Amino acid sequence: MTKTTPASKKTAARKASARKKASGTAPTTVLLVRHGQTPTTGKVLPGRAKGLHLADEGHRQAQIAADRIAELGKVDAVYSSPLERAKETAAPISKALGLKTKIDRGLFECDFGDWTGKELKKLNKLPEWQTVQRAPSTFRFPNGESFTEMQTRMVSALDRLRQAHPGGTIVCVSHADTIKAAVAHALGTHIDLFQRIVISPASVSALTWHAGGPIVLAVNSTGRPLTELKPA
């Protein structure tokens, strides 16, 4: 009879883990990071307009996020929306991890169309604003995206990116509405209720995918160590 040694058990476990990763069934964790504060945060709907950079506070927030994520140790990749404020938030995270930021258009901000660059205090006086807040699934921004299109785009991007890193951890730097839509989808919550989710500047929301589907580990985390997010 063949005797099983501790060393052979470890070897078998490593081989099983490798097979699991190769099959794409190993759990993958996605850290969704909203970009840091900008000079217009809470005042303007910037959308996809170019040239908006982080404020000094936004850079500070991004560094805090980077320090927290670096505590996790192994991270496989950092992805970012193409917009400057997202790339500037991703930069210290990539630096802390010794990685290069990869740009992915699936993480883009919602296309607000004709509402791009408008002041929020003026937009919230429009009758359409109540639809945006209470029945977003029925609304399309004039000459822009609908919320359902945005959610489909974002969720599809996350599916594609997490499947490229089976068994790993990746960072995706994006925007408030796109992250809220992704979290709502993972929770099985209808898009009409996604406005109830709060995503603060430079916050981290964590989702992990396994064979049974997504699990939400954290939403809008801004302070506690991310090492606590490891599944029990």
What do you see in this structure?
Mean pLDDT is 91; it is low at 15-20. The chain has a single domain, classed as Rossmann fold. The chain is built from seven helices and eight strands, in the order αββαβαββαααβαββ. The strands form two sheets. It has a six-stranded mixed beta sheet, with helices on both faces. It is globular and about 45 Å long. With 232 residues, it is of the alpha/beta class. The two termini are 36 Å apart.
Compact description:
The protein has helices spanning 6-22, 56-70, 84-97, 120-123, 127-134, 147-163, 176-187, and strands at residues 28-34, 44-45, 77-80, 101-103, 118-119, 169-174, 204-210, 213-221. The chain is α/β, with parallel strands linked by helices and 232 residues long.
Biggest sheet descriptor: 6 strands, mixed
Enter the CATH topology name: Rossmann fold
Q: How many extended strands?
A: 8
What is the H-and-E element order? HEEHEHEEHHHEHEE
Any idea what the CATH superfamily is called? Phosphoglycerate mutase-like
CATH class: Alpha Beta
Level-2 CATH architecture:
3-Layer(aba) Sandwich
Domains (count)? 1
- The computed structural class is alpha/beta
